[in-house]
Structures are given as C-alpha cells and as structure tokens.
Amino acid sequence: MTPGVTCQEQFHRRWNHLQDPHVRALAWLLDAPDLLDPLAAQWQGRIATYVDADLAPWLNALEQEPQKLQDLHDYIGSLPSTRLGLYAEKLLAFYFERRQLLVAHSVQVRASKNDTVGEFDFLLRLNGALVHWEFASKFYLLATSGASPQADDFIGRDMADSLGSKMQKLLHQQLTLSLHPAAQAHLSEPIEAAQALVKGWLFYPEEPLSLPPALGVSANACRGYWSSLSALQLDPAAMYWILPRQSWLAPAKVAPGDMLTPIDARVALSQHFANDAGPLLLATLRLEDGSGLETSRGFVVPDDWAARAAARRRLRTGAPA
C-alpha cells in the first residue's frame, strides 16, 4: 500500500466503480493489506498472502454480467447465519471455486461421531500443490495506551478473544489439523503447506502507534479509532453511517438517503447505548458523485468498556490488577 494513504483512500481509488455490496466486500478481502506480516520471523512462514494479477477484470465481469452476479447472491443467500466471519469465508469460497482453486471448504474432521477434532476452512490447489488455509477476518481494539502493546492488548469488541489468543489457536491448533490421524480420510495427498490468511482492522484509542516489529502486525494493516460515547467528537461538516455487521469489511459507499448528520448520528448512538448495548462501528463520510464515501471508521463503545476490557485481559492472561 502507498505510504501515507489510508485503506479507505486506496480502496476507493481501485474499486469505487463497483456498486454491488458483495462484490465490494470480496474486492476488499482479496486486495486489502494483510493484518499480519507474512515475513515476520515469529510466524515461521505460516501466514498466507494472496495476489491475483487479474482480479480487476474478474471482479468487473462478475458485477457486470447478471447471471454471474446472481450466482454470487444465491451463494451468499445459502448462509446458515449472519455471522461476519461466515459471510467473509463464504465470499472467499465463491471466489476460490470460480477460479478453480478450491478442492474443499469447511471440511469437518471427527475422531468419532461425537468427537469433532476441527475443520479445514479451505483445501486449495495452488501451483499444483494441495495446501490448507485457515481464514480469519478480525476487528481488534487496542485496550491500552502503553508504548509497547502486546498481542493480548488487542481485544475483540465483544471481548471474547484477543489477537494473541487467536494466533495461538491458529498456529498451535487449527494449522496442525492435517497432522491428526482422523484428517487423513479427507486428504487425497499430503498437505504441502498449512497457512493462515488473516484480514481485518485494528482500532486505536488515540493516534495509531508504530507497533513493535516483534508483534508481527503488518505496517499497512487497516486502521481506525475507538472512542467511548461520552468522549466521541463528531465533525459538524461530515456525514455519518452506522455500519451494519455485514458491511464491516470494505470501506463504505452510502446512498444519500442512508447518511446521518452529526446530530442524527449522536441521537442514534445515544438511543443504542441507553439499552446497555454493545459497540457500534461508525463510518465518517465525504460526499462524492452523489454517494457518501468512507474516510475513516471507529468503534463507539460504552463508557465502561475500557475498564471491562482491562479486567477481561487480566483474567485471560493472569496479569496482576
């Protein structure tokens, strides 16, 4: 990614002509910077990166040919839930299948009827070899203002996991699945490589830090902010949109009728948090050619979120209070 250019700017330059929300989300998944640095020593080559030199014409054809676009919508329509991770994984499965790279997707491995060992996210044929890819799309908030954050300081909005715990699970559990005896029944040949493809956004309470290289996070990882409701400052000259969960992946492109003034955004947020609800993702928009294009994004959280996140981190890591 060009130095000094945000993920939003980069995306709008390349993909603003795309209109369909599923195609835009797929463009982001395939073209956005990786969340983790594949070359960082601690990953030992187990972080995947993917480049498709023909991505632009392929996505253009997907959106412009009605039957292809309908195929994508039908494929997404078969989702068993609205979970964002499943949605992102399904988009990639559609792409890998149509590009004739997909060998199998979501393959459950069981040691017995009631003992599930794990699941292969993707078995792919890349450069003639069979590879196992785990996929994750993650949104983590940095829950400390220290100068040298650790992986466990990046916490999910619902506090269910952290960057540190997710990577431990990926490296030491999910990516070793092919070594389990029960997995052999699903493999026609040995796995050449097992890697994790990780996309997502990191959110900071202040200006983004220069993260220590030992953290293994990509220098180009997509970034945003987070703020408590009471500390949130809205630009009186901007427009806003509260992103639905399935719209968290790609930078937003919003119809005029869906945009919120700063006053309306503040009212909507206050009403939401009056019901003791969880964080919301808020996009700041600029008007261009009749649409609102995202310029930045941030999680708005309850006023006690930081204290609860710190307590959850201590519980997870055993750190002193």
Automatic annotation (TrEMBL):
InterPro entries to which the protein is assigned, alphabetical: DUF1853 (IPR015003)
> What's the protein name?
DUF1853 family protein
Q: Which organism is it from?
A: Collimonas pratensis
